[in-house]
Amino acid sequence: MPLVFGPTAGPRQGPDGGKFDMSRTPRTTATVSFLTETEALRGLLPPGCEPVGEPVVTVEHTQLRELAWLAGRGYSMLGVKYPVRFVGDAEQLNGTFLAVLWENMPEPILSGREEIGWAKIYCELPPPRVFEHQAHYRAVWDGHVFLNLTLEDLSPGDPPPPPPPDHAGLLHHRFLPKVSTKGETEVEQMILTPASAGAQVHYDRVLRGSGKVEFVPSRWEQLPTMFHIVNKLAALPVVEWRGGSLIDSCGASDLSDQRILTSS
Amino acid sequence: MPLVFGPTAGPRQGPDGGKFDMSRTPRTTATVSFLTETEALRGLLPPGCEPVGEPVVTVEHTQLRELAWLAGRGYSMLGVKYPVRFVGDAEQLNGTFLAVLWENMPEPILSGREEIGWAKIYCELPPPRVFEHQAHYRAVWDGHVFLNLTLEDLSPGDPPPPPPPDHAGLLHHRFLPKVSTKGETEVEQMILTPASAGAQVHYDRVLRGSGKVEFVPSRWEQLPTMFHIVNKLAALPVVEWRGGSLIDSCGASDLSDQRILTSS
Amino acid sequence: MPLVFGPTAGPRQGPDGGKFDMSRTPRTTATVSFLTETEALRGLLPPGCEPVGEPVVTVEHTQLRELAWLAGRGYSMLGVKYPVRFVGDAEQLNGTFLAVLWENMPEPILSGREEIGWAKIYCELPPPRVFEHQAHYRAVWDGHVFLNLTLEDLSPGDPPPPPPPDHAGLLHHRFLPKVSTKGETEVEQMILTPASAGAQVHYDRVLRGSGKVEFVPSRWEQLPTMFHIVNKLAALPVVEWRGGSLIDSCGASDLSDQRILTSS
Amino acid sequence: MPLVFGPTAGPRQGPDGGKFDMSRTPRTTATVSFLTETEALRGLLPPGCEPVGEPVVTVEHTQLRELAWLAGRGYSMLGVKYPVRFVGDAEQLNGTFLAVLWENMPEPILSGREEIGWAKIYCELPPPRVFEHQAHYRAVWDGHVFLNLTLEDLSPGDPPPPPPPDHAGLLHHRFLPKVSTKGETEVEQMILTPASAGAQVHYDRVLRGSGKVEFVPSRWEQLPTMFHIVNKLAALPVVEWRGGSLIDSCGASDLSDQRILTSS
Predict the structure, then answer these.
(1) Which residues of chain C have pLDDT under 50?
(2) pTM (two decimals)
(3) Whole-number Å distance between alpha carbons of B121 and A113
(4) Where does the record place the region Disordered (chains A, B, C, D) (predicted)?
(5) In Å, how far is D56's CA from the nearest CA of chain A?
C-alpha cells in the first residue's frame, strides 16, 4: 500500500521491477548469546513449536550499509532469536525462531512485515560507543534506553560454522488481524527462511570474546507499544553467558526464497 | 506482530485491553484543495471505483497531540484524498478516497496498515514555519523536501459543514501480498470509515484563506520507495485553487467502527 | 565566525542588517520552583555574587514559536535560575542568576554564548507528554533522560507580578578561555539583562498548580560534557516544593539591551 | 560556560582533568578539490592574508569514530579550505586557511569555537550513500540539502605527502564580538595549528579518483544563519576539477598545540 500509484520499489523489486545485486553488500554484526531456562522460553513460542536443544538466546545487532534498494543508504537491526522445533502434521523441522526484530528505518519494517512476514518493529539504534576495548550498543525509543549490549576481550576467531544438517533455517510467526474486527485473525502462518538458500557470505573480519546484554524493565508510559516485549525479555533468567562476536562480512539474500510451512 | 509476547497495545486497545477516551484529543489541521481534471484522477482510482462529482484534490496536514494511547505523545499526518464512487455488485456509494497518508511515527503506521487497512507510509513532517502571515508546511524524507504547502490570508470562518447525506465516508484500498510469492495477493479489499460514526468534534478555532500545495518531482535516488507516488501527484494538473483552512479542534474516533465493502 | 563570508544573520540582525519585530512572538513556559538550602547554592555562585533572599530554584521549560530570525521556525529552552546579589566595588544589585540554559538548536546557542554571554548548552527537549491531567517534560542527551519535570492540578491563575523595584534583572556569568592556553581566561564578566527593558509581554493563558522536577544523577559515559552540571543540580536538597505554572504569552526582546556589570 | 559548576570535560581535558589518548582514533576522510580563480578567493580572505600559489579549494568530509572524550562516540565534519599567505609585521608564513567547518554535533562546535578559535557551525551530515561505484555525501539543514559531494573511479593510491617545508599549517580566523555592542570586536586573531605538531597518522587505506562538489544556492528562508556562506561558496568558479580521495586513517591531535599569530 498504497497500490493505486503502482508497485512500490523495495528490497525485492527495483524501480524497473528487476532484482538488486546484494552479493557485495557489507554488514557488521555484533552478537551476544546466553543460556536461559527451557521453561522460561516455553511461554515465548509460536503455534506448533516446542523447545529444542539448549535454550540459548542470541541477541544480534547488525549494521547494513550500501544497500542497492535504498540507493546506497544503510540501516541497523536488532534481533532476538532462539532454537525451536516446528511440529506440523505435514512436516517437522528444527530452526531458529526470530521472535522480534527491531529496525531503525520504517521502510524495511513495512516491506518486511507485509512481504516476508518478519516480526519487525521500530526503535532507534545509535552507532556503538567504542571505548577502552569495549563496544557498547544501545536500543532507544523516545529517549528511553531499553537495551544495553556490550562486547569486550575481542580477538580474532573463526567464522561461524555452517548450520547442522538438521537445521532448516530461520523461522517467523506471521500474523495479520482482520480489519476492524477485534481479536479475529486474517492470516497466521509459520514462515521459513531456508538455511541452505540465500547469498554466499564472505567474512572480512571475525572477532570473538565475551559479551553481555541487558533488557531494561520499562513502564507502559516509556514504551507504550512494546513494554510487554521488553519486559518479557528482561525476565528471562541468564543461566550462563555464552560469549559474543563482532563480524564484518558481505553478501546478503533478498529473502525472496522463503516459504510457508504446512501445519496440517 | 510480534505475537508471542502477547497483544500489542495501540490506538484501539490499551495496556489492559480497554479502550482509550479520545473525546478531548486536540488536533490542528491545515488543508489546501485544488481542482484537477477528471481524466488525471482516473489513473489513481482503486478497484471498483470511478470518479464522482468535481475532481477536487485535498491535501491535509494534521498535528495530533496528547494521544492517550501514546501516553500523551503526539505525531503528524499528511493525507491526499479525492471523491470517488464505489460501484460493487452488492452495494454502491459515494465517498472520499484516502489515496496515501504519510505519518512521521512508525507505530501508528504499523497499526494503521494492519488493523484498519489505511495506506500509511513514513516521512518527516517538521512543525510549520509561521512567518509574515504565512504558514509553511513541508514533507521531507532523508534530507529531501518533496512537498511544500502554504496557507495565507487567513481569517475567521465557518466550521466544515456536515457531509451531504449521500456521502458514506472515507474509503481505503487495503492490499497485502502473499508471502514471498511475487505479484500474488493475500488480501485486497475496499474499507469504509463511516462518516456518520466516530467522535463528536468540537471546533476551537476555524481560519479560512488561500493556499497552495506543490509536490516536488523526485528521482528514485532521492525517494527510493515513494518517488512514484510523489511524481504521480506532482503530475496532477491544477485547474483552480480552491482555498485553504487552518482548524483547531478536539475529539477523535479510534476508527474501530470501520467495515469492509462487499464488492460482489 | 566564520567572518570572511560577512556578518551572520541572527536574533539581533536580519539578512539586511535590520532588526526583527518580536512583539508578537508566541511562547509557552512551564515552570517549577523549589526551596533549597542557602549553603547548597553557595557553591554555585558566580564571582562577586552572594546569596540573597530565599534560596528558591526555578526550572523553566520554554517553547518558542514563529521566530522571525529563523524565518518562522521555533525551538525550546530549559533554564535553571536562582536569586543572587552582585556586590562589585562600583555597583551592587539584586537579580536572578541564569546558571545554565539548555537549548535544542545549535544556532541560538552559538549566538547566545558569543553575542550576549548566556551559559547555553545543547540537549534534546522533546514536546511534553500530556496525559491524565499531567504535563510531563524531559531533557535528553543521546538517549539518556537527565531531567523529568511534571506539572499537575493546573487551574487558571494570575500572571506573574512585576519584579520588585530592587530586582535588576537576569544575571549571566560570561567566560571565554584564551586560545590553546589551558586554564587562562580571555574574558570573564557578569552581564545584566535589565528587568525594566525588553518587550511588552501579553499573557494569553495563565495556569498555576503543583509541580516537581528531578535531575537524574548521571555518569560521564552518559553525559560526557555535562554530567558535572546535572549531578550538582541533582544534589541540591529540596526543602519544599513551591508550585508550578504553565503560561502562554507573546512578546519578546531581542536582548540587545544588555550591559556588562562593573566589578571594580 | 557554564563555569559555576566547574570546568567542562572536552577534547582537551577529561573528567579528571587529564588528557585523552587519540593515537588510535579512526577516521574516514573524503576529499574533493577544484581550481578556482585567485580573484574569486580574494573576497574570502581573513585580515592580514593574501592569496598564495594555485587557488585550489578543498572540501573535506570527515567521519570521526571512537572518540575517547565522547566516551567512544563519533561525529562528522565538513570543511572548506584554501591556501593563503599570512603577512604580519612580525611574522609571515604560508598555510591553509580553514574558512568554515560544519559539524553535526553541538558539543565539539562549542569547544572548538571557544577553546581553539575554529570557525565551526552546525549542519546535518548523513552517512554517505554508496552505490554503483559512487560515494555520495550531502550536507543538510532542516530538510534542505545545501551541498552534494561525489567520489567515483576510486582505486588504491599513495598517502598524502608531507607538507612542503614552507607550509606552516592550518590557519583560523578567530572572532568574538563584544557583548551587546553591535559591531564591536572583543577578540580578533589569526590562529595557527602547526603542521609539524600533532599526531602520528597511520594510513589504513588510501583510494584516489575523481570527484565533484556542488554548493546549492539557497535562500535566507532555507538557511537563515548561513545562506550567505553557502551562496559565496556556490559562486566560486570551477576552473578545473583536481580529483578526490577517500582515506581511512587513525591517529589525531587534541589540537592543544595551537598558537596565536603575531600580526604587529
Answers:
(1) none
(2) 0.95
(3) 13
(4) 1-25
(5) 30
Average pLDDT over residues B64-82: 97
Report pLDDT for C255.
79
Overall number of domains in chain C = 1
Res. B91 pLDDT band, cuts 50 70 90: very high
Contact check, Cβ <8 Å, C143/A129: no
The rounded distance, in Å, linking the Cα atoms of D218 and D142 is: 13
In a domain, C133, yes or no: yes
Question: Residue C206 domain-assigned?
Answer: yes
* pLDDT given for residue B155 in this prediction: 95
User: Looking at the partner chain, which of D124, D131, D145 has a beta carbon nearest the beta carbon of B144?
Assistant: D145
| Cα B158 to Cα B160: distance, rounded to the nearest angstrom | 6
Instruction: Find the Cα–Cα–Cα–Cα dihedral C100, A145, C236, C240, rounded to 10°.
Output: 110
Residue C61 lies in a domain: yes
CATH number of residue B55's parent domain: 2.40.400.10
Which of C129, C132, C154, C204 is the mutation pick for testing B, counting most B CBs within 10 A?
C129
3-state secondary structure chain A: CCCCCCCCCECCECCCCCCCCCCCCEEEEEEEEEECCHHHHHCCCCCCEEECCCCEEEEEEEEEEEEHHHCCEEEEEEEEEEEEEEECCCCEEEEEEEEEEEECCHHHHHHHHHHHCCCEEECECCCCEEECCEEEEEEEECCEEEEEEEEEEEEECCCCCCCCCCEEEEEEEEEEECCCCCCCEEEEEEEEEECCCCCCCEEEEEEEEEEEEEECCCCCCCCCCCHHHHHHHHCCCCCEEEEEEEEEEECCCCCCCCEECCCC
**Local structure of B111: helix, strand or coil:** helix
Check CB contact under 8 Å for C130 and B71.
Answer: no
The pLDDT tens digits for A197-249 are 556 899 999 999 999 999 999 999 999 999 999 999 999 999 999 999 999 99
Segment holding C168, helix H or strand E: strand C167-177
Gap between the Cα atoms of D108 and D99, Å rounded: 17
A168-178 tens-digit pLDDT? 999 999 999 99
Residues 238-257 of chain D with CB under 8 A from chain C are 255-257
Query: How much is the ipTM here?
Result: 0.95
In angstroms, the separation between the Cα of residue D24 and the nearest Cα of chain A is: 11
Residue B2 lies in a domain: no
* Set of cell numbers at residue C126: 522533546
Note the pLDDT of residue C196.
67
Structural domain range at position D173? 20-248
Residues of C in contact with A129 (CB under 8 A): 221
Q: What is the pLDDT of residue A5?
A: 96
B164 prior amide bond cis, ω within 30: no
The pLDDT value recorded for residue C198 is 56
Q: Are strands C26-35 and C120-122 parallel, antiparallel or unpaired?
A: unpaired
Q: Select the more confidently predicted residue: B163 or C34.
A: C34
Looking at residues B102-106, what average pLDDT do you find?
98
Interface residue B142 vs chain D (CB under 8 A): yes
Strand segments, DSSP code E, in C4-72 are: 26-35, 49-51, 56-67
Query: How many residues would you count in chain B?
Result: 264
pLDDT exceeding 70 applies to what percent of chain A? 98
> Is the pLDDT reported for residue D264 higher than 70?
no
Q: Please tell me the distance from the alpha carbon of residue A102 to that of residue A115, in angstroms, as a whole number.
A: 17
- Report pLDDT digits (tens) over A147-184: 999 999 999 999 998 888 899 999 999 999 998 777 78
Higher pLDDT, C29 or B132: C29
- Chains in touch with A (3+ beta-carbon pairs under 8 Å) read B, C, D
Please report the DSSP string for D38-99 in residue order. Answer: HHHHHTT--TTEEE-SS-EEEEEEEEEEEEGGGTTEEEEEEEEEEEEEEE-SS-EEEEEEEE
3-state SS class at C233: helix
